[in-house]
C-alpha cells in the first residue's frame, strides 16, 4: 500500500478518518518522478496528515501550507513524490479510533468488517 493510498482510507465501520498507521515492514520502490501528478494530487490530500506521516517516516518537516504552484520549492515536490508514491507499506496494521484493527498483508489493507453472528 502506498502512503498516497493511506491518505484516503477511512474506517468502513465508523467512517472516521484518519486511521492510525502502524507499519512493520516498509519498502521503497522507485518510480519515475512526476511533478505534475503530485501537483494535481495535493488538493485532494489531507495536508495535516501528510505532514504527520512525513515526520513519522522521518522524511522531514514539510511546509505548514501545501504548495500550490509548480514554481514552488522543487525539493518539496521530490520529497512528496518519494513519500507518497515510492514508499510502500508491505506489512502492518491500520487502527480506527474505536480500536478496530485492519491488517496490511503483502501491501494490501484488508478493510472488510467481519461480523460474528451470535445465533
From TrEMBL:
Might you name a Gene Ontology BP term for this protein? tRNA methylation
Give any GO molecular function from the UniProt entry.
protein heterodimerization activity
The protein's matches in Pfam families, at most eight in alphabetical order, are given as: Trm112p (PF03966)
- Please report which protein family the annotation says this sequence is part of: Belongs to the TRM112 family.
- Name of the featured protein: Multifunctional methyltransferase subunit TRM112-like protein
Question: What organism does the record attribute this protein to?
Answer: Galdieria sulphuraria (Red alga)
Amino acid at each position: 500500500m502506498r502512503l498516497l493510498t493511506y491518505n484516503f482510507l477511512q474506517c468502513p465501520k465508523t467512517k472516521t478518518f484518519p486511521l492510525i498507521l502502524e507499519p512493520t515492514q516498509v519498502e521503497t520502490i522507485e518510480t519515475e518522478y512526476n511533478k505534475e501528478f503530485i501537483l494535481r494530487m495535493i488538493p485532494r490530500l489531507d495536508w495535516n496528515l501528510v505532514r504527520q506521516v512525513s515526520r513519522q517516516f522521518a522524511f522531514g518537516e514539510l511546509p505548514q501550507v501545501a504548495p500550490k504552484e509548480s514554481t514552488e520549492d522543487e525539493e518539496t515536490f521530490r520529497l512528496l513524490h518519494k513519500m507518497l508514491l515510492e514508499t510502500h507499506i508491505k506489512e502492518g496494521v491500520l487502527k480506527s479510533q474505536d480500536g478496530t484493527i485492519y491488517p496490511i498483508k503483502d501491501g494490501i489493507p484488508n478493510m472488510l468488517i467481519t461480523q460474528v453472528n451470535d445465533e
